[in-house]
Amino acid sequence: MKYFLRLISVALVLALPLRFATAGGAQAGNGTDYLTPDEGASWFLGLDRTIKVCYESAPHFGTLSSTDLESVITQAFSSWKNYIDSKGINSTSQTLLGPEKIAFPTRSEIHQTCNGSEDLRIYFGVKKPEVSKLLDEFNSPFAFAQRTNYDAKVGWGSGFIYVAPQGAVDPAQSLPNWSTPNTLLAILTHEIGHTYGCGHVAGTVMDANLAQKLGYFSNRLDQIDIHRSLWAGLKIAAKYNGTLISDAGQFETLMGRAPSGPVHADLSENSLLTVSDDLGSTKFPMTFDTNMRAVGAGDNLVFSAYLNNGSPAHFGLRSNAVVYYGSLKTAKGQILNIMYESNTAQTVGSGVKYGPVTLKYFDQGTPRVLFQTQWN
User: Fold this and answer.
1) 166, 40 contact by CB (below 8 A)
2) C-alpha span between 106 and 119 (Å, rounded)
3) Closest CA to 342 of 206, 233, 221
4) In sequence order, what E strands does 127-187 have?
5) Rounded CA separation 314/102 (Å)
6) Counting C-beta atoms within 10 Å of the first and last residue's C-beta, which end of the chain has fewer, N or C?
7) Are residues 34 and 166 in the same domain?
């Protein structure tokens, strides 16, 4: 017997007067979700499965051609595939729950027209009956995602994403403006993130207020991790370009000499700190004593999943801050005790920002910043 979860809607809206909406028992309004973990779970599960996607575009949607729209869809799915692979999402779920218990599919097949048999229907300004039925429930959405059914026994569902035409939200300011580079990509990546069971996480492409922050995030709209990591991972899972801090002789401590010319540094997923100047580059392997650990409360679950094929299985990750302790050997053979930080919260003025990736070492018990990413 099929187990259908309640229908869910998740919308991106402008900060207009608050009006909550109800769709199939779940509420969404002003860019905030009120969903149980089951309702926010991934629409699709299965490592070797393919998500069949179709799209249709209204003549008044904007200036982007059908080829452009398909390219954006392809790029959005590619971003999620790369993220799932690089962060080891599927290997993490299988480590925690057992082989092939829960995995997120990363293959997609895109068709230009919809016949109703597809797993995910994307409507660029097209007001099909299933769209019109929900549009009035939202307050000027840029876009929203609606899951229409889900069979928990097989871990597969279907639904649609609606994206508003250019200028439909605020005609005076031509909002949304899909001609602005990567704007449509960011919005669509956000909505596809919901189909993967990702809730709202501030400072990422899953930010609940992404529609209002498009200008602020403008130089990283093609990224999932914008000002922080959606999920920090169980290891350093990306290559970070950053700055080697040198206000307290950090370069000399690390290299055993003074710098010559500009200094460059990066931190890579195989736990290597690479430092270079005009005299060459040096790699410093880092050894970590423990796995990363959470140090603060997280946001909504990301990569949430629910499967019930005899024994219920729930899975989800928190976008927590993490700290990792270990050691590093300098060029002169000195052992430095180090600390890796990611996503740690910092109070800035009246608000909170999430700290960049930072590597610190302990100088007689005092932590000193050794390396820090260039974005925060």
Assistant:
1) no
2) 14
3) 233
4) 141-151, 156-163
5) 9
6) N
7) yes
Instruction: Please report the pLDDT score of residue 27 as a whole number.
Output: 26
Question: What distances in angstroms separate CA 116 from CA 5, 122, 229, one per listed residue?
Answer: 20, 11, 35
Q: Which residues of 18-41 are buried (b: 16+ CB within 10 A; e: fewer)?
A: eeebebeebebbbbbbebebbbbb
Same domain, 92 and 174: yes
Could you tell me which residues come within 8 angstroms of residue 186 by beta carbon, excluding any fewer than 6 positions away? 205, 210, 214, 217, 221, 222
For residue 240, which amino acid is it? Y
Number of domains in the chain: 2
Distance CA 198, CA 301 (A): 6
19/151 same-domain check = yes
Q: Are 255 and 145 part of one and the same domain?
A: no
The answer, as to whether pTM is greater than 0.85, is no
Tokens of 254: 């690390």
Tell me which residue range forms the domain holding 283. 240-290+321-373
Cα–Cα distance list, 222 to 14, 24, 79 (Å): 20, 32, 8
Within 8 A by CB and 6+ apart from 282, the residues are 255, 274, 275, 276, 331
User: Quick one: 250 and 148 in the same domain?
Assistant: no
Do 137 and 276 lie in one domain? The reply is no
Q: What is the pLDDT of residue 31?
A: 35
Which phi and psi angles does 270 have, rounded to 5°? -95, 30
**Same domain membership, residue 184 and residue 132:** yes
User: Strand pairing partners for 282?
Assistant: 275
Cβ 304 vs Cβ 316: under 8 Å: yes
pLDDT tens per residue across span 129-158: 999 988 888 888 999 999 999 998 899 999
- For the cut 80, the answer to whether the pLDDT of residue 47 exceeds it is yes
Question: Are the beta carbons of 23 and 14 closer than 8 angstroms?
Answer: no
CA-CA distance, 267 to 283, in Å (whole number)? 10
Q: Looking at the domain assignment, is residue 310 inside a domain?
A: no
236 confidence band (pLDDT: 50, 70, 90): low
Q: Would you say residue 298 has pLDDT above 60? A: no
Q: Do residues 266 and 203 both lie within one domain?
A: no
